[in-house]
Amino acid sequence: PSLASNIAVQVVPNGLIVSNAKPGTAFALMDLQGRALGRGKITQMSQFIPVSHKGVVLLKIQSEIKVLKIQ
After folding, report:
1. Is the dihedral of CA 64, 70, 6, 49 positive or negative?
2. Helices (H) and strands (E) in the chain, counts
3. What are the φ and ψ backbone dihedral angles of 34, each rounded to 5 degrees?
4. Which of 4, 9, 16, 30 is the most exposed place for a label (fewest CB within 10 A)?
């Protein structure tokens, strides 16, 4: 059975807010070429992740990849 994810990602000035991810979950932020822009672990239910890269980025949390546009 597949598990529906409740993870929500909101683009905000200078970064992202990840909500409903389980604390301790690893994340990785990449550009479209797969280069690492950042990585870490979720430490709280709603967490700000700073992003200085402008353009389209990929955020991988657990087995999910979210495509986000940073302006």
Report:
1. positive
2. 0, 7
3. 90, 5
4. 4
CA angle 36, 39, 41 (to 5 degrees): 165
The percent of residues in the chain predicted with pLDDT above 70, rounded, is 93
Q: Report the percentage of the chain scoring pLDDT > 90.
A: 80
**Cα 51 to chain center, whole Å?**
10
Our CA dihedral for 11, 15, 17, 23, rounded to 10 degrees, sits at 140
Rg over alpha carbons for the chain, rounded to the nearest Å, is 12
**3-state secondary structure (DSSP) of residue 45:** coil
